[in-house]
Design goal:
The chain is of the alpha+beta class and 203 residues long. The protein has a single domain, classed as Maf protein, CATH 3.90.950.10. The chain has helices spanning 12-21, 48-60, 97-107, 174-180, 182-201, and strands at 5-7, 29-31, 66-76, 82-83, 117-127, 134-144, 160-162, 167-168. Strands 1, 2, 3, 4, 5, 6, 7 and 8 form an eight-stranded mixed β-sheet that branches. α4 packs across α5 (182-201). The termini are close together. It binds inosinic acid. Residues 11, 70-74, 87-88, 120, 153-157, 181, 183 line the site of inosinic acid (IMP).
Length: 203
């Protein structure tokens, strides 16, 4: 059987990042749509890990492929960790990010320096036929910017400021972002496991 990975997301921005990061596995990485799979998944976990596991398990019931799922989001310390696991739904699922980002900036008005600390978090779950579910997690630490900047990336990237780079994650090239991002790091932590499984089970 020819190996493939199905990534349990409908988010094309994420798919671009994921394909780049997993390109050296040399097997196709398909979105749910490309794999002609659909599932109504209720992400009601309390943590990123739980939600990633829920997604991976649900999609694994529909295919023999290797299934990967991620759950990610932004934690802002001043807002007690919000939006956290609600990052996609925060301030309304259909509200444009330009608006969401403005609202967040207004909520942090007058908050200075390290009090603006925040992090992107990503948990990745891998469901592989006949194996125990694997989960990795990674974060990238930053601060909420004073104003939005940059057109790369997606979501909250224009307001996520990396002081060591002096720019937001929306001002990094896709390669730079993948190098340091929560998703890049969590996926690379999973890559060895996947490589090993692919080698063991062959074509
Ligand atoms: P998920 O699809 O349930 O994992 O929702 C993740 C949400 O978190 C996204 O819709 C974005 O709002 C936010 N998010 C996660 N990763 C990133 C990132 O790399 N940049 C910007 N926003 C992100």
């Amino acid at each position: 059987m020819k190996q493939k990975i199905v990534f349990a997301t409908g988010n094309e921005d994420k798919m671009k990042e994921i394909r780049m990061i997993l390109s050296d596995l040399h097997i196709p990485v398909l979105s749910m749509k490309e794999a002609s799979l659909s599932a109504e998944i209720v992400e009601d976990g309390a943590t990123f890990e739980e939600n990633a596991a829920i997604k991976a398990r649900a999609v694994a019931q529909l295919t023999d492929a290797i299934v990967l799922a991620d759950d990610s989001g932004l934690e802002i310390d001043y807002l007690n960790g919000e939006p956290g696991v609600y990052s996609a739904r925060y301030l309304g699922e259909d509200t444009p990010y330009e608006e969401k980002n403005k609202i967040i900036l207004s909520r942090l008005q007058g908050v200075e320096g390290t009090a603006r600390s925040a992090r992107f978090v990503c948990a990745i779950a891998a469901a592989v036929p006949g194996e125990e579910l694997q989960i990795t997690r990674a974060t990238v630490e930053g601060q909420i910017a004073l104003e939005p900047a940059g057109d790369e990336g997606f979501g909250y990237d224009p307001i996520f400021y990396l002081s060591e780079f002096g720019c937001t994650t929306a001002q990094l090239t896709p390669e730079q972002k993948n190098e340091l991002s929560h998703r890049g790091k969590a996926l690379r932590r999973m890559r060895e496991y996947l490589k090993n499984y692919i080698e063991r089970t062959g074509e």
